[in-house]
Design goal:
The complex is a heterotetramer. Chain B has 3 helices and no strands. By secondary structure, chain B is an all-alpha fold. Chain B starts with 5 loop residues before the first helix and ends in a 13-residue tail after the last helix. Helices cover 72% and strands 0% of the residues of chain C. The chains are: A mainly alpha, B mainly alpha, C mainly alpha, D mainly alpha.
Amino acid sequence: MSATDLVAILPMLVLTMAAVAATVLAAFRTSHAFNAALAVSAFALALFSLVPASNAAPRAVTALISVDAYSLLFTGLLLGAAIAVTLFSYGYNEGREGGLAEFYIVLLIATLGAIVLAVSAHVATFFLGLEILGVSLYVLIASDLGERANEASIKYLILAGIASSFLVFGMALVYTELGTMEFSEMARRTGESGAGPLLLAGLAMITVAAGFKLAAAPFHMWAPDVYEGAPAPVGAFLAAVSKGAVAALLLRFFLQTGSLALHPLFIVFGAVAVASMFTGNILALFQTSIKRTLAYSSIAHVGYLLIAFLAGGRAGMVAAGYYLAAYFVSIIGAFGAVTLLSGKDRELDLLDDYRGLAWQRPWLAGAFAAMLLSLAGMPLTAGFLGKFFVAAAGVREALWFFVIAFAINSAIAVYYYLRIITVLFSPSYGEAPGPLPRLPLAGTVALGALTLLLVFLGVYPGPLLALLEEAASAFL
Amino acid sequence: MATVPAEYALALAAVLFALGLTGVLVRRNMIYVLMSIEVMLNAAGLAFIAAGYRWAEPDGQVMFVFILTLAAAEVSVALAVIFRFFHRTGTLDLDKVGSLKG
Amino acid sequence: MPGIGVGIHLAVDGLGLALALLTAFLGMAAIAASWTGISERTGFFHLCLMSVIAGVMGAFLALDLLLFYVFWELMLVPMFLMIAVWGHGGRYRAALKFFIFTQAGSLLMLVSILGLYFVHGTETGIYTFDYMELLDTPMGRATEFWLMLGFLAAFAVKLPAVPFHTWLPEAHAEAPTGGSVILAGLLLKTGAYGMIRFLFPLFPNAAEAIAPAVYALAVIGIVYGAVLALGQTDLKRLIAYTSVSHMGFVLLGIFAWEGLALNGALVLMVCHGASTGALFIIAGAIEERAHTREMARMGGFWSSAPKMGGAALFFALASLGLPGLGNFLGEFLVLLGVFGVNPLLAASAALGLVASVIYSLWMVQKVFHGPALPGAAMPDIGGREAATLASMAALVLWLGLYPAPFLDRMGIKGHIGKTASGIETGSAKGTGANGLEAGRLAEHRPDMGDAPERQGGRKEK
Amino acid sequence: MKEFLWLIPALPFAGFLALLLAGRSMPERLSALVGTGAVGLSAIAVLLIGIDFIGSPPPGGFHAQGLWSWVELGWFRADAALRLDALSLTMAAVVTFTAFLILVYSAEFMAGDEGYSRFFAYMDLFVAFMLVLVLADNFLFLYLGWEGVGLCSFLLIGFRYKESHTGYAARKAFIMTRAGDTAFLIGIILLAASFGTLDIQTVMEVGEGAASGQQGAIAALAALSILAGALGKSAQAPLQTWLPDAMAGPTPVSALIHAATMVAAGVYLIARTHALFELAPAVMALIAALGAATLLISGLSALVQSDIKRALAYSTMGQVGFMFLALGAGYWQAAIFHFMTHAFFKALLFLSAGAVITALGGEHDMKRMGGLRKRLPLAFWSFLIGAASLSALPLVTAGYYSKDLILKGALAGSGAFLWGAGITGAFVTALYAFRMVFLVFFGKAGADAARRTGMGIAAPLVLLSALALFSGFIGVPSFLGAVAPPPDTAAQVDTTLAGVLSALVPVLGAAAAYVVFFKRRAWVEGLPEKGFVAGLHAFLRSGWGFDRLYERLFVRPYLLAARAGREDFMDAPYAGAAKAAELLSRLLAKTQSGQVRRMRWMTIGALLALRARSYDAHGRSPSSGVAAWASARLGGPSRVVLPFWRSRSILRSSFPFWTEEIAAADGSLKPILNGCPA
């Protein structure tokens, strides 16, 4: 392992060292601000280290890790998301009981797991990343000591455990059939010999596991309960980082192995995409909990995203990448808004809590509304361009069935996003709700930045598109 | 040493996996469910070993070590969470976990 | 976004100019109408109003399909907020309904836009959203038909054509006055504009193929809207249904795709914008004063508010198509144009003229005439309202009596010159400021079958 | 002088504008001055232009004046243009003079009304539109005037807007005439589309030039639709029922609009386009038949009315029926001549009836009047003159000359049958005319007459009386004949007997009225209250039940449809979809029970379903339509070959069928074990 290799995996090294350092330092400095600052600076440093890493790219660091434009881009996205989540968490955790230092340490480790997924080029790293991420998430979800978080954690860990075992067993089957665990090699051999039943079975089991992590229907059942039970910033992390890392890996896996060209898998993923869209959207329609609504919405978004997967090719990859970025910004922003409004005792989660918010906190409500509109795919927001690229990829490949389903679902989805917005903008009547908590500075800054980014991505897609094109050329 | 055909090992793994799955599906006690998951994971490990054997590579065994380690980590965290649940409710019945729904 | 062939391409021609001017005009009217009606959060209201107007204006001027789509969507959110925040009782439902209907339509249009983009790209190698480039996209009949349907869905919902109109009465009834003015005056026009600008030029054959079905919808809409208008008890809902009826005429005029009918549709669009907008202003003024929209609780307002009554009468007359007012001219030209295409169609559409009398007169008499109800006294319109209404009346009168300047400058030129009797005159006018449309209209004239041969020989005067 | 033609309609319109803008602040006197003065000036203009026209006839017998280019679009062109010829001059003269006299009358009659200036504004507007109608050079401009007078009729019927029945009557009038007008508009469109122009004269020339074949059929169709418009406006069967109700308006309005001028617009329209009608003999016959029918229907109805104004309204329908009879026979000069005399004597009748009504404090019922001869001598004499002229008492009244001309024409042009109807109608006319005279002015004194009439009312009555008596001597027919000579059928039929009869019948009718309604009045009053006679009475009185018929046939179904549609049934599918979505959402929410065990099962179940699906897709049994469709769409990726793992059979037999794994999951290990070689 040469020095260049180390440079290439610098972001991961930074995070690892930060986690170790934070664990050690936790014995001496337990101030909340210090721990949060440490995490943020670690993420920032990791983000910054992408620059030297990109100079080393493309580079395969052993057979396990492949550092190229694609993985670097997703690493960057994940790190950015992690920074935002950390900033939101700071205000949220301030004044709450529980192991605060541990929270940030586990957050660092979870992000590390996510990045491992993004750079993974091998079944081993796939599994490793997924487990690091998963196990850390059990802790993060349970970081709130309340009953609901505990319950959410149990649900998550049991179902995730099942999913993990499916994953490894599936991997074993694939390995049995192909005799390799490197993605690129797997692709080559599949192309040579075609797909045997073991391979298909293995891929199907891997699909189940991935579908579970993505919270795609019909493996979505845990998601609303866990999102609702978990603390809001963790919800953001689950919806964005956890989902995004798996999506990044899956995208690479399928694009590189060409598995989606296999007819059965295409059908399976098509069915999953359509089912996710409809299930998510229809279930979201009449929810009264904001977090639950967002959870169902994120299920639907996986469905949209899968259409880009199905379209495949360069266009599909670019569309999926843009969509993910837009989705990151919007969903973290939306959860962030919930986080900012949550007081010490209670999260502001019920729809009714938001009545007339726009007249008391116009900027915050405006940002929240912008996030929701972006999720709904209105122009001038990142979400619109994301949807646009996905639809374009679908139309390009003549996936009419999926594109029409996509359009129908986008129209259905409008209902519940707008429902929240109408509540935000409705005049508050009856007794005035208690005074809203003071807005924490870090989170507010994060939300502001996200909103700006939302609009930037919505009107000026050029830079990100260029990056995505470059990423696509990494292996296509 | 008489060699066991790889298929046999794979079949055994499949049986183990199915057993674990059955346990996961039918048990209500969280600890048993957790154990069943461990069985499934280990079945997968066995399958890896069988596969590695088939291709005459150490990779399968390496994966088995990975699986063991991570399963341990998983179980430790899981036990902590489950313990807190037990502490709170006095039961390990999985069916009692259901206040979040809709 | 040059990378994927998206550009900021704005342009104006007669059609766009006419509608853009109407936008500015009605925008001012809407602001004037909201002067006293909106007492809370005025700043935000005007922000929304301006955004809608900007969206509409952009849609009228955009010549890049994606840009058009963006503007098209851009009007939705602020309009939605205007209804949802400043609306009346059932505002949430109405606002959501409005949004979901239009959004469903426009998403289908987006899919079609993308389809066109790739079809064009595959055929010519140029991937672009530019309208001028896309005009002559070669494509198969089936492809053209399906792509056209996507556009038609968006425009038919917005217009609205029966049976996609059901969002309209609710949205109108619940919106604040300014919102109703914009909604009726402008948003509906974007649908018609889209058909003229995009649907026919881009998909001439498909549009022609579906024309019979659209004719049927248009005629049903004319009659259905008019009949239902009479059944309403809510003043604003009544006016909304009259819009359905009138926009049926517009739809008919557009799909006849004939010079006279098209210009008629254009005149009707402008005048409908003004007259229906004015009626909504009056309804709003009544609501502000009498605190009700229920017609059962109105009556005898003439004694205390004769000016308002006179204005209502004037615009009701415009709405029923009194000659000398622009609406009549528009309807007449539409009927004249349609007659050349299908006489029976024109005759059945003319039923709407009878039906429109019934609801218009009933409305005026119910609200302003009759014995004064207890508490019916209310202040008459003030100077601001009077000036707004007068300027709208002037517009309607001008287009009704002396439309020549308007038609010269902003009319849709190009294919005028064919009648049922095959008289060819005046087709030389198709150039100049309207070069944009000129060639295309003539080219994509739907074949009128054997009608031209039927009646030959016309004695020159 | 002729270049000031535009002033004729412009002056009343200016009067309207002045009253509209400033009328509210004007004193009554000034309003009346403006309103009446504008029409008076217009009348003077007509007079001067008429003298000029007759003195130095323009070439071709007409003078056209373009005002502005109204619509010009490709081949289609319609100008706002005026045309003066003998026909329009006659019409304009009658309209302006009658209107002037009626307005003078109104200045006093309407005094004290709260809408005084509004009244004059509407009246001026009406006159302006009527003049546009009469003078218009093309169909579209004519239609402007046509609808304009309809509007004014609506406004003036509903003038007393606080009473709800006036509103109903006004609406009914507008809607019924609009039904006819729409047909007329379609006719206009037909003409424009077929002949490429809307210029009336050009259309006539083209029509004359192409008498047969396609063009002839178009002409007939156009004539038919023009006829429909004329029927509505002129209250002829079957569109006649609005006129009696229109009497809800103030009496001068009834006099001017619903008797003298607007109601006869249909006659003018047909006379103006007679060339077109001559191409369609069948339509001509229809006109004559409808005219005769209306004449009889309305005559018998007038006979049993008790409301004086309704009786006069039915009489108006009848007289217009006479005009239609003449038009149908081709004697349009006679029709216009009768239009003129009718305008005078009917205005006179209405105005004197108005004087009586006012004097009795608003009493309309003739049965409560009586014996007013002494108390209201002016009203009596003018009403008597009017009635005489209406009955066409020979030699001394103007009505005689015009009606005689019509009856002779009917005999010559339409045959004995319709002539018989006409002569019967003439008899009935005289009968009901003198019935009114006897009921109102003779017999027992009824209610008290209070008010004295002033000069403003007296002068118009006197002038109109003179016109009703002597206007028969004006040589209108020959003047009009200069435009187009009457048909030559006149020479072929001997009309001497007819002439004698048409002179005798009115006298007989008057005499009969004397006997029945004065001498033997008890006989009429003794008619049974029940049974057939009473039923017939009610039937005639209601105008032959047309109202009820239309109510059943059109009004109720329409209202029913409107009410039923209030909730807009087209919304139902959307509401249903929303409901379905809600239901589905609630149903799906049930799956989210939050129970971990159920989640596990469902996840596994889904996995198995997916596997089953993935095998179907191999083409063994494409069980899913979606899958098949999608695969067809995709053009099918490279077919997946299934190279089973060589030489090893155990996995092949156990794994391809994932259903067996379900069995394993269920605890039954048999299939796998069976597959193992020993």
